[in-house]
């Protein structure tokens, strides 16, 4: 079909009953509506004028009615074309919103990043990882919650968390865990405690007469410390807590020594406590968790990359 030939006559005669249009035909129709001519539409689409004419002819043939008429050497849309164009513009508006969202996801991720973590990692590891993340993506919003290991599963299964950090691997079939690294366990002591004179602390140093702060045996740290405590005649803990952060706070108040992971005191330990390695050494794992019912969001992946970077430097 040439630009100066009457359009739509053959299509109207064909009357093929309005078969569905494909995206290319819709794109060509929109380009003609916007530019006002076939030649200008071809330039906008970077195709030849004959190619645009062929697509338009096939479009009109499929629809069974004309879309344009020649009036005084101008292309004039038919009433049907005007109604169709209104719907096409709504479709293109939706496509633009999709493109805007796709660009936004690539830059910032989807909405807020929801992070849950054991309290011990909230002391140093999570803040440093978020600092890395926000330096590269300053518009990210973060919802961070400190949770116990027992609470963590519920946050994922109810859709309230994107990614989590813990020292124990979850065993729920709908959760996926990835080991990011390890952390040494250390002994933290009040600054005036007699054990501060030792270069290392062993299980025998926590024998009778030395009140210390420990964990129930069914907690993640309680399980991790079992080989250490069984290596010598350690006495039962005078105080049991469920979080190394709580244990550290008790040490700072002079209640006795405690065993915590190194990231609980990764910064400056302060004047009121002393940090000593333990023998035999105990490592705890650092696990990243997310639901396997849906893909980990892009922001979650970037957060884990930031965590890995912090661990590599540490």
Number of helices: 11
The fraction of residues assigned to DSSP E strands is 15-25%
Measured on Cα atoms, how large is the radius of gyration?
34 Å
Helix content: 40-55%
**Mean pLDDT across every amino acid position:** 86
Give the number of DSSP strands. 12
What does this structure look like?
The protein has 314 residues and is of the alpha/beta class. The strands form 3 sheets. Strands 3, 4, 5, 6, 7, 10, 11 and 12 form an 8-stranded mixed β-sheet that branches. It has a two-stranded antiparallel ribbon with strand order 1-2. A two-stranded parallel ribbon has the order 8-9. Strand 1 and strand 2 form a beta hairpin. Helix 2 crosses helix 3, helix 2 packs across helix 4 and helix 3 packs across helix 4. 31% of the residues are buried. The N terminus is likely disordered.
